[in-house]
Amino acid sequence: MRTEYNIYCDESCHLENDQSKAMVLGAVWCLKDVKYEVFERIREIKVKYGFKPDFEIKWNKVSKARNDFYLELINYFFDDDDLHFRGLVVPDKTLLNHRFFNQDHNTFYYKMYLDLLKVILAPHNGYNIYIDIKDTKGQEKVLELQNVLRNNHYDYQNQIIRKIQQVHSHEIELLQITDLLCGALSYLHRGLKGNEAKLHLIDRIRYRSGYSLLKSTLYREEKMNVFIWKAKESNNGRLY
Length: 240
Known about the structure:
alpha/beta, six-stranded mixed β-sheet, 6 strands, about 35% helix, about 20% strand
């Protein structure tokens, strides 16, 4: 019998022309059977700091006044052995040359999702993948990503990739944790400095993980796995 996992995916600055150099994709995963226990623990932390259980954790809400709350969430992630994260960083989208490599940005996006998830997916397990709703074209992307992943893993009976589903992040605590960790990677790799509380959170992630977050971790790292994508160079010096 296959062990079943849930994977919660989010993305930051993933659009081609959004004026941000670094693109980040991220995923938090855990056993399907423990998700409600994890959701409940995160809601308890919210209530402890005076928030309602349905308060949405988001990177863009990190502030000095909420510093202790977000630090406890980071500590909880690292203390719970059931939780794992993998983040993929494309350091500079402005160097991408899609035309030279006969692709568009959407195709590149799916390639990056493959690189993100290939370390997580195992052929003897089953996975339910949840992605935050971003725009009206999201369902088309979900169906395409589902096809790409299943074909790439020879999953013609849909036993590995059980489903990929769009969801609202405010309803799912682990998707909110993914947003938080993706936001930290994005903030760091964009070279931003203006929010002291966000810098404090990044320092806490570095301390708890033991990694700089600026270089790729080992391939088999299971708690805080970071992959800094390196492009191949075309003959005109542009990258893909």
